[in-house]
Amino acid sequence: MRADSNGAVEIRDRVWIEEVRWANQATVAAGLLAALTVLLYAPVFGLMARQWWDDPNWSHGFLVPLFSGFILWRERRRWRGTANGGSRLGLAGVASAVALLVAGTLAAELFTTRFSFVLLLASLVVYLAGWRTLRAVAFPLGYLLLMIPWPGVVYAQVTLPLQFLASRWAAAALAAVHIPVLREGNLLILANYTLEVAQACSGIRSLVSLVTVAVAYAYLAEKGMGKRALLVALMVPIAVVSNAFRIFGTGVLTAEVSPRLAHGFFHEFSGWLIFLTATTLMLAVAWVLKRLSRWIEARRG
């Protein structure tokens, strides 16, 4: 009995030693991969962080990785239990990510190099832990895409229609309150001043930031994919209407008080005020959706 017991203890000790050795090797390998990734993408991170700092349209980019990291830590017990062996298909994704990085660097295409980083992370997860783990961490990885500034061509294609839409709605609202206004494209010609709805005033800044906030809030506060998608989709009209209201308010104060209110502190302050108002509307919409969902469930029951 003692011999059998001693043998079992020796086997258990060997298994434990092997597990510790494997864990140490995995930690070293993960550390090396992380160091190589940081070294490889250091120029990409530097340029992107500089754009976050210099371009107000993408200043929310600093918060996106922090929120993704928070979700990974918050759900660590769930995704840690999903690893069931890696897949060699992940190596194909790693090769593709590196190819995109090289191609984007040679072509000076910033979006491609930045997107390749997210693809690299997803591919490493597949290679090291498998597809189940990738599904478990899909949201925090996918959320990182919201930190990447859009390509210039896409940005221009989105902002131009928003400029015209915001100026059209603002002109209609000004006419409704009997303020004389003539709209020519993105120009609002008042009796004492001409307002230009520039790219910065198109609403794209509040739209991108609101969608980023809405995606995070919907993931934390809502359970079903349908509710989450609906809440995020509703942020588009909320952002557009809020921005049109901002331009309308600026037009009223410019016509009735002073053209100086179209610039400077008031212009910046109104942007923050409208963003906070739109965020409040988002929370109100989420509350209404919850009440409506409970009412529908009660009716079905």
Architecture overview:
- The structure is a single chain.
- By secondary structure, the chain is an all-alpha fold.
- It is 77% helix and 3% strand.
- It is globular.
- 26% of the residues are buried.
Biggest β-sheet description: 3 strands, antiparallel
Radius of gyration: 26 Å
Shape: globular
Question: Total strand count, please?
Answer: 3
Amount of beta strand: under 5%
- Ends apart, CA distance between termini: 63 Å
SSE order in H/E notation?
HHHHHHHHEEEHHH
Q: How many H/I helices?
A: 11
Read across the widest sheet, the strand sequence of neighbours is: 1-2-3
Determine the fraction of residues in helical runs and give it as a percent range.
over 70%
Mean pLDDT over the full residue set: 81
- Look at the helices and sheets and give the structural class: mainly alpha
Low-pLDDT ranges = none
